[in-house]
Design a protein that fits this description.
This protein is α+β, with helices and mostly antiparallel strands. Helices cover 21% and strands 34% of the residues. The chain has one domain: Umud Fragment, subunit A (Ribbon). The strands form two sheets. Strands 1, 2, 3, 4, 9, 10, 11 and 12 form an eight-stranded antiparallel beta sheet that branches. Strand 6 (110-114) and strand 7 (122-125) form a beta hairpin.
Length: 200
């Protein structure tokens, strides 16, 4: 009895074709899983510069939560990553200080807020992340629109923020800082921060 055999060349081609088909399937499955996570849930970012020291230092690796702000509004005190209003190809990291509709005043080193709760104004208590002797530079008063936020860097002496380029639009916010993944000795999951007031 004579057995029919596939030519060696055709067998090798079939094996190579099968390998590439399996590879393509793996890539497609990975893309279906990773892309929604990357663009809708969490996103990695490296910190560049000193504007958020000592909270975040240059070179640290952060995971940004993009999901929370699809379900609720950003809160005062949260550290966010956003597209720089003057150049959307750049990403900045700052802390939310003023919320939509509020009037923010910086004077004599102190940040104060006027809103529906504090109609006469109240000084912002930033002791949770700023040293007691640190003063906020600048002199300004600005009233935020219904989709605008006022942001500042924690390192007030080395930060390009709303004091220089104005309010941040809600649409420019990417997400909030969720996790510091690197360096490992500073790894930390961040809870949303709620800032208090000292009434004037």
């Amino acid at each position: 009895m004579t057995e029919a055999q596939e030519p060696a060349g055709e067998s090798a081609m079939a094996a190579v074709g099968g390998f590439f088909w399996e590879l393509i399937k793996v890539v497609i499955i990975a893309a279906v899983i990773i892309i929604p996570i990357r663009y809708f849930l969490v996103q990695p970012f490296f910190v560049r510069g000193a504007s958020m020291e000592p909270t975040y230092s240059d070179g640290e690796y952060l995971i940004i939560d993009q999901l929370s702000y699809r379900m609720r509004d950003p809160r005062r005190g949260e550290v966010i990553v956003f597209r720089f209003p003057d150049n959307h190809s750049q990403f900045f990291i700052k802390r939310i200080i003023g919320l939509p509709g509020e009037t923010v005043t910086i004077a004599d080193g102190q940040v104060s807020i006027v809103n529906s709760q504090y109609q006469q104004g109240a000084n912002l208590n930033e002791a949770q992340y700023l040293s007691a002797e640190l003063r906020t530079g600048g002199q300004l008063t600005t009233t935020l629109a219904e989709d605008e936020y006022f942001v500042l860097g924690d390192n007030r002496f080395s930060s390009s923020d709303s004091r220089s380029w104005g309010a941040l639009s809600r649409s420019e916010i990417v997400g909030r800082s969720l996790l510091r993944a690197f360096p490992f000795n500073r790894a930390e999951v961040f809870d949303p921060v709620s800032l208090g007031f000292i009434s004037i």
